[in-house]
Amino acid sequence: MRFKRFGASLLVAGVTLLSAATPAMAHTELKSSDPESGASLATPPTQVKLTFSGPVALADNPIQITGPENASWTVGRAEVAGTVVTAPVQAVGPAGEYTLRYKVASEDSHVASGSVKFNLSAPASSPSSSSAAAPVSSPAPATSATPAPQAEETTPEGLLPVWLWIVLAVAVVVAGLVVALRLTRRKN
């Protein structure tokens, strides 16, 4: 009977540990984007919109869009309104798959980053070729030769992933059960 109480206590402690750790590990994630992930567009967007699960602040160079043949879109000044980040874009490049990479900071200052892939079914022409009367502005200079982050980089720096916390909690519960079994066998 003593072992059952001890085992039940360990189980309750393990569940409490997991439920207490989960809110602390919850960080801002991308909920939706425009263009959507996997979308196929006939014409390039003039603005991108990212909606997150919580309030965010802008990181340095928060949005980048790259595509085939080293195409790099000019991204204007990004603005944030609570959970929504928007930025005007100027598309140039051939038809094909494009990747929008983002990096923002959540309220607790952890960085959330990732990518959204979409397809452009027709080449994006520069504004100077589509309208002769429009003023031509020089594109923004390349800011970095560092490779852009991949979609797998969603765990903020310095934070353990959720699955690791679950494994640790299960290990603590199993270790407690092993100790309890050994103690009850010694008494018998």
From TrEMBL:
Gene3D superfamilies assigned: 2.60.40.1220
Record's protein name: Copper resistance protein CopC
Domain CopC: 27-119
Record field: transmembrane: 162-183
Domain of life: Bacteria
SUPFAM superfamilies linked: E set domains
Predominant location: other
Cell compartments where the protein resides: Cell envelope
Segments of this protein annotated with the region Disordered: 127-153
